[in-house]
Amino acid sequence: MAHKPSIPKGTRDFSPSQVSKRNYIFDIIKKHFRTFGFQPIETPSFEKSETLLGKYGEEGDRLIFKILNSGDFISKVDDVTYSSKKSNTIAPKISEKALRYDLTVPFARYVVMNQNELDFPFKRYQIQPVWRADRPQKGRFREFYQCDADVVGSKSFIQEIEFIQLYDSVFTDLGLKGVTIKMNNRKILAGIAEVIGAKNLLIDFTVALDKLDKIGIEGVQKEMLEKGISAQSIEKLTPLFSLMGGSLERLESLKQLLADSEIGLEGIKELTYIIKGVEALGLKSSKLGLDITLARGLNYYTGAIFEVSAPEGIAMGSIGGGGRYDDLTGIFGLKDVSGVGISFGLDRIYLVLEELNLFPENIENTLDVLCVNFGEDEAMTALQLISKLRESGVKADVYPTATKMQKQMKYANNRKVPYVILIGAQELENKTFVVKNMVNGEQTEYAMNAIEEFLKVL
């Protein structure tokens, strides 16, 4: 008995309908990437292990899919290493390559390897799959696409303003209104940690602060105490929880708290410039908001931090994010190359569009016209007709066999084909074809030499 096939956990098959919807999102994102001057690149699906390992922290290293070496790889492991049964000592002996964990580190490697051929600032976009040995759950998979855009080689904060506009343009085009683009700055977080005396506990401080909307002020204070931040330091945070007004007003209030922190004031200055620039240019359908608790990517972000939230009422995690990094290429020896980038969360955007019914009604129409097959002569005439239709950009096909009419019409209905063409013996004789509108059932006859009249209907 044949074994029932299955796919690995955290991976998915995609139906024609799902692929059409995903491509719809891809096409809109790509369109705006190009409009904003970004150039496409692609990198290999797997990299040398040394390129990836150590770039994402201990947790990230555990989530990297490693590829076994070709051939009799186990024979190259000495008995002492093999008998230790320690994966971290055996793995380098049997695996020299790994599937990419994200697009950012491969991009940094690409920039370093091609620095003499690139024109800086270099604006790149990349849409490719990545792999992570994560625990699968809703909206989180082991194989998924990332849609990234980055600028490297420029310290100008105009780039941050443009990325906010890019987000707004894409979500407006997708019909996704009410998206919130939240902003913070790592320098502000570092400044707060400095003035409360927790400079050496920045990560513990920010991890707790980031949970404010989930566990409340008391929960944050309790977690900070558990992480070794003193009650006196936590007391100094009190003004942070009661900031009022708009983004610029709250930044002005923050100046008092960070008056003695040079790096904190620098972060406020940067965000003030970006927010004022965005307000001067305006946004079409998104909202820009300051979120002092936002603390993503602190292992590599050095300045502005972005996170995009779905419209209110949609239970979904972030649908985008990014930030500025001042020395990403430094991990490969190229120092002082500043950059900033963002990413779109394709899978979550897909789920949000689905929930809000924002995909176009005709998105699943993969075929505009189907010719019914009445026999060999009729089918050959149908092929000549659909060849001309295809030249005009019409998605057209002929049913391959002269089976029962009912079966062919059922196939057309299942494919959601809007028009069916009928060419029988009488049409052959008259040199005509009949078009049936599958929505209202109306039938119209056209001369074979008057295809243009039918094209006007499409």
Structure characteristics:
globular, eight-stranded mixed beta sheet, alpha+beta, BirA Bifunctional Protein, domain 2, 2 domains, Rossmann fold
Q: What's the CATH architecture name of the largest domain?
A: 2-Layer Sandwich
How would you sum up the major sheet?
8 strands, mixed
CATH topology-level name of the largest domain: BirA Bifunctional Protein, domain 2
Distance N terminus to C terminus? 50 Å
The top-level CATH class of the largest domain is Alpha Beta
Q: Which of globular, elongated, flat, extended, rod-shaped describes the shape?
A: globular
CATH homologous superfamily heading of the largest domain = Bira Bifunctional Protein, Domain 2
- Secondary structure tally: strands: 16
Determine the strand fraction and express it as a percent band: 15-25%
Low-pLDDT stretches: none
The largest sheet has its strands arranged as 1-5-6-11-10-9-7-8
Number of helices: 18
How many discrete domains? 2
**Average of per-residue pLDDT values:** 91
What is the share of helical residues?
40-55%
Radius of gyration, rounded? 29 Å
Task: Tell me the structural class.
Answer: alpha+beta
